[in-house]
Structures are given as C-alpha cells and as structure tokens.
Design a protein that fits this description.
Helix content is 12%, strand content 46%. It has one helix at residues 99-112, and strands at residues 21-31, 36-45, 49-53, 63-70, 73-85, 89-94. The longest helix is centred in the C-terminal third of the chain and has 14 residues, at 99-112.
Length: 114
C-alpha cells in the first residue's frame, strides 16, 4: 500500500508572520468601484489583517474599505481579500493603515494579549 504524498507547504495558518487573536466586532466593507456595502462581523484580528465572517464574500483580490466597530472605537483601513472559506467568510489583508488607525489597532491587540 503506497503512502499518501506529504505536502511541504505549511497550511495558511502556520505561514502567518504575526499572531491572530479572537475578537468579535461589527464590520462593514465597501467596494469602491461599485459602491457595494456589505455588513458582517470579524472573528479574528491581527496587526496585518482579519477574518470577516460573511456568507457571500467578494472575489479574492478585491480591494475594499474596511471599518470595524466596537465599544472601544472604530478602525478603518484600505484592505484586500486574500483568501476565501466558502460559506464562512474571507481573509482580509490591511493595506494602507493611517498612523492614527494603527494606534487604535495596536491598543485593541494589546488588550487581547494573554
């Protein structure tokens, strides 16, 4: 019986360069070209991106404006969809984060650290 081939490429989660933390917060994305607005929620966040829980995400590579809202304020950044999990949501990469917005994000991450 032949053994199954072993992949040398680690799963996406193992290739991350920064830790992700569980965080549930309201989110809205806007696709600038069409003006399409989609509401959802995030379930994970890191310094570089987040996971957006949404049933019908836009295609991989779509650039968008993301706004995350929670009791401790609002974070907004230009972003891009980098992967999809069908029926679950989309992995979002933050692109251009203004310094003031990065301070908001860093404060949230500091509060989520164990």
């Amino acid at each position: 019986m032949a053994e199954a081939p072993v992949s040398s490429t680690p799963p996406f989660r193992e290739r991350r360069s920064v830790p992700r933390f569980s965080l549930t917060a309201a989110a809205e994305i806007i696709e600038p070209r069409s003006g399409v607005r989609i509401s959802g929620r995030i379930s994970e966040i890191s310094r570089k991106g987040c996971f957006l829980d949404i049933l019908n995400p836009l295609p991989i590579g779509t650039r968008l404006r993301l706004t995350i809202s929670r009791d401790q304020g609002t974070f907004s950044a230009d972003a891009k969809i980098i992967y999809l999990q069908q029926g679950m949501g989309a992995g979002i990469l933050f692109l251009d984060v203004a310094p003031g917005q990065m301070k908001v994000l860093e404060a949230w991450l500091a509060e989520l650290q164990p």
